[in-house]
Amino acid sequence: MIRVSAFRWVPPFAQGLVRDLRVRWALEEAGLAYETLLIGFEDRGTPDYRALQPFGQVPAFEEEDEGGDRLALFESGAIVLHIAERSEVLLPRDPAARARAIPWMFAALNSIEQHVQAFALVAGFLKDEEWAKLRRPSAQEMAEKRLDELAARLGEREWLDDRFTAGDLLMTSVLRILRGTDLIAARPTLAAYQARGEARPAFQRALAAQLAPFAENAPAA
């Protein structure tokens, strides 16, 4: 049994971006069934939930084997890596190809996401704050620098390495954070790369699964 925590509802600007999507996508690619633990914002600070996720975020991941042994994990990147280790779709069996795929997972979450997220915040959710207006130029410059470097490395490749891996899954998820900007569209190489990731049937199933409870639990108008 696998169970993944997710929010019952989030505002529209966050729908399709909450990090449980990455875990759902990995599970879909790996062909692993899972259940969902839907929580509200008020549940994040409860002792029971903090035991699963020390920072009150989503996703948290729980797995129980046939013998009753239980594993609990947090942090989306770590969870995706755990899933990927059980799936040749996400991590190749060939040792060298496997070793090359893992750095791209870390690159997505460290070299790219921190700069993409910083720009997305000052350009979107916090754009009316005076400090955000001052921060935006430098945040954009750094985000664009990282995107240009990524595009240069990708070049004419379909994926970051010889085939789709968990590195592409996480990188595509990170690039989606910029959907309210034109930074990806301005780089056709990255736009096409992101579109390839989002066209995968496993991604489409994961996205639909995340969005369904948001529609069901939307506040009354």
Shape designation: globular
Q: List SSEs in N-to-C order.
A: EHEHEEHHHHHH
What percent of residues are in strands?
Answer: 5-15%
Reported for the largest beta sheet, the result is: 4 strands, mixed
CATH topology of the largest domain: Glutathione S-transferase Yfyf (Class Pi), Chain A, domain 2
CA-to-CA gap between the ends? Answer: 37 Å
Return the CATH architecture of the largest domain. Answer: Up-down Bundle
- Strand arrangement, major sheet: 2-1-3-4
Task: Explain briefly what this protein structure is.
By secondary structure, the protein is of the alpha+beta class. The protein has helices spanning 20-30, 47-52, 76-84, 95-125, 130-154, 166-175, 188-198, 201-216; strands at residues 2-7, 35-39, 60-64, 70-74.
